[in-house]
Amino acid sequence: YCHFSxxxxxxxxxxxxxxxxxxxxxxxxxxxxxxxxxxxGGGTPSLMGPAEVRDLLRLFRDRFGLDAEEVTLEAGPDAxxxxxxxxxxxxxxxxxxxxxxxxxxxxxAALGRRxxxxxxxxxxxxxxxxxxxxxxxxxxxxxxxxxxxxxxRTIDETRRLEPDHVSLYILENVEGLPIEKVLDRHPVDxxxxxxxxxxxxxxxxDAGLARYEISNFARPGKExxxxxxYWRYEPFLGLGPSACSHLGPRRWCNKSAVGxxxxxxxxxxxxxxxxxxxxxxxxxxxxxxxxxxxxxxVDLGDLGTRLGLDAGRVFARQIGELVAEGLLLRDGARxxxxxxxxxxxxxxxxxxxx
Length: 354
Prior knowledge:
single chain, 3-stranded antiparallel β-sheet, 44% helix, 15 helices
């Protein structure tokens, strides 16, 4: 169901990836970058043992002056165990993000997952016992076979496991992915999906997880600091095939295929697949759209200070129309989407596009 670049694991590709990361780190190193968060994912980085994760952190400290307040590693319930969890924690990982999706075996089977809900729950509990500063997981609604009862079961199990963070997604039907055939055979009812999402969101709130972004809930102080950088339009550097970066006025994304990306680096060439120079108005528009994904919204004054452009003035017409229609709320310089309109945010944000 995931539409990000992915390939089956093989030792040869893993070696290519590892050599490529080291080469790209050497290429991107520059004085003063000093990142304070690191996110190892997506894919299944839990295929790496603790020693390799420790080596990667050492590489990033040496090349970039990494002084991380938060180091996140994504883990699959079918590619991790209690021993690895403790090893990753000792290696320097502070935050574990587990791809659970649901605590229901029917839903997991529809998604093609190779683990049971019991195994997923056990990994979440082991993660808590391993001593990470934060343990979170992903959940999903809109999956064929999901019922109100299975949603309630997932809520109950989430409450029992007491995660620090939960990402809640609605399954998208992306053309060409295997899940498209499943959805063709077993279409889901949109009203039912909305009901499931509302129940799940309310259950998370009742369990002490406050919504801070359209798809993300966390206990106070346990928000994902790394992902907040994206939504607050702060600079970030990505290494690896299909990874994207945004530094200064430039954004670029690497080649998606592991081989093409690694071969370009081996030849001493840029592994970039696409690159764009962002004009000030484009950057302001993007910053406004990304920031409105946050429940707290956007401070237009702060945005103007950081980007040197008054987004409130440049997009005054669109903002005014959306406020008049009740699709945006404005309180002084702060702009946000009303809580009851977050699920139609795409329709709202599209109104800010050219």
